[in-house]
Automatic annotation (TrEMBL), chains A, D:
It comes from the Bacteria. SUPFAM superfamilies: MoaD/ThiS. This is Molybdopterin synthase sulfur carrier subunit. The keyword Cell division does not apply. It comes from Adhaeribacter soli. Pfam families: ThiS.
Automatic annotation (TrEMBL), chains B, C:
This is Molybdopterin synthase catalytic subunit. Keywords: Molybdenum cofactor biosynthesis. One of its GO terms (molecular function) is molybdopterin synthase activity. Its EC number is 2.8.1.12. Gene3D superfamilies: Molybdopterin biosynthesis MoaE subunit. The lineage of its organism: Bacteria, Pseudomonadati, Bacteroidota, Cytophagia, Cytophagales. Pathway: Cofactor biosynthesis; molybdopterin biosynthesis.
């Protein structure tokens, strides 16, 4: 399936835009997505950390993804 | 009672105070973030804030609800700025009212500490010779 | 830098904030006392504050100087009201600015806690059926 | 010597005015003053505590007093 991934902060710089699209097997997990993103964008591995959010909530590594989810990459936050 | 706002316009302390004031309250603690002119000795020209807005509001709502469970407080107002901020401008205001001051202090501090850890808002520091997303790299 | 005022007129938060704001500061913590409508379940009609003014200013100066020694903070503003205050009015404002927020929070809390222990200011609670000097009796 | 004692808060109510005058031996101490005040105004003993201030500073019990000092009775404070 195609997944659209929203990007913010430094992830937007790394993706070169506010979103990217990845092709990933049905029932892929958050971990699987991270592996694929890091292959496509090796600079992600240099971040202090990053999370994946699914439908506006931080997601667990084993959580499965669906094409209808709103998925975002959350680099280290720095609000306040 | 919780008041959360993300705004591209300058924040106003009085708006937050008026919202948390309550005749049953004896004290209000307010934290006001301000843009500093330097970081690690290097001059800062401006900051740029970006938010994943819907998720940021949801996370702020969660931490405010946690604070209301953890401490005997009355009202919370959290306003966070987005966009470009100059030195001296206000990125965040957190105001907490309570019958007794200890709870207001503890909750206010918890809220700003937790906001900085979990709420999807990002800040870029712009210097004369470059720019950096704060906290992005180890 | 220390700004201390005792005043019979209503206090203004913005005045204190404007005074402590500083381009080298990243955070300001402000404590605002407010007159509560009840104490121990009993309705309060108003408060009356009285100060031994010269000594109060001297004691406030001391605790502010202590705070500046104990924490890396920039500026302190302490305004305290005297006279008759109605419910919702502000007896005290303490604002502290610092490069980093932890020092601002710690110093602000120290200042209000110590003010309440050592500064010669007295508060009378007025009820429908009588009045009492707060803390006078065991 | 005559000492004028300023009173605030509940002490003003106890003295029935914003000051009182006591007659006390030369070189009397803060403790001696307190004993004399409590004899004249027994209600002082019911207070949670009280201090004596000399020239705008909290005074120690053994400190000696002079007629030119500004002396005040400081009942439990309750500002803020």
């Amino acid at each position: 399936m195609h997944l659209k991934i929203l990007a913010f902060g430094i992830a937007r710089d790394i993706f070169g835009g506010s979103q990217t699209v990845v092709e990933i097997p049905e029932n892929a997990t958050v971990s699987g997505l991270k592996t694929q993103l890091e292959a496509k964008y090796p600079r992600l591995q240099k971040l202090a950390s990053y999370m994946i959010a699914v439908n506006d909530e931080y997601a667990q590594p084993g959580q499965t993804l669906s094409a209808t989810d709103e998925i975002a990459i959350i680099p280290p936050v720095s609000g306040g | 009672m919780i008041d959360i706002q993300l705004s591209e316009k300058p924040l106003d302390v009085k708006t937050c105070l008026d919202w948390v004031m309550d005749p049953a309250c004896g004290g209000i603690d307010v934290f006001i973030g301000t843009v500093r002119n330097a970081t690690k000795g290097k001059e800062v020209l401006r900051l740029e804030f970006e938010a994943y807005e819907r998720m940021a509001i949801k996370e702020l709502q969660k931490i405010c609800e946690n604070a209301l469970v953890k401490w005997p407080i009355h009202r919370i107002s959290v306003h966070h700025r987005t966009g470009v901020l100059q030195v001296g401008e206000i990125p965040v205001i957190i105001a907490v009212s309570a019958a007794h001051r200890a709870a207001a202090f503890d909750a206010c501090r918890y809220l700003i500490d937790t906001l900085k850890e979990t709420v999807p808002i990002w800040k870029k520091e712009v210097f004369a010779d470059g720019e950096v997303w704060v906290a992005a790299h180890p």
